[in-house]
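User: quick one, fold this
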Amino acid sequence: MILTKAKDIYQEIDFYPIKNDGDKYYVELHNDIANGFPSPAEDFSGRRISLDEKFLSKPDSTFIGRAKGMSNYPYIMPGDFMIIRSDLEAKHGKLVIVYIAGEGFSAKRIDLIDNCLISLNKDFPVICVEADEIVETRGEVTAVFRETIDLDHFMNLNNH
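Assistant:
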């Protein structure tokens, strides 16, 4: 597999540009919030972080794509936002945005040893490519975030 940087992808994925108006916002970070019963001794004294410094430190080479489909479910769900860094080279084992002929751009894990593109959802087939085949990459997925789910809707789906 020969990796090359893709050009002009803006028609292929939902693209959200990063704009900088000069303002930075800081929020408190609280570590170790339990998803079960919290410890009464839990220390909620947080430090302050800037989300743009954490996730958008290279605005000229960072863009956000919105996920479609189920090929990386449950790790990445439809509607999730993926922060993508185009300045990072695609490396073995990393989740990157690749161009798949006939399908467009997709997030896949790169396997440079076996020359394969792998979905995180095990129900999807592995895409193997020839050693001399060119695979266009757009960048590495460095973070994923989603809006809060509608718990009532989610619970109704699971009860049927």
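User: anything notable?
Assistant: The radius of gyration is 19 Å.
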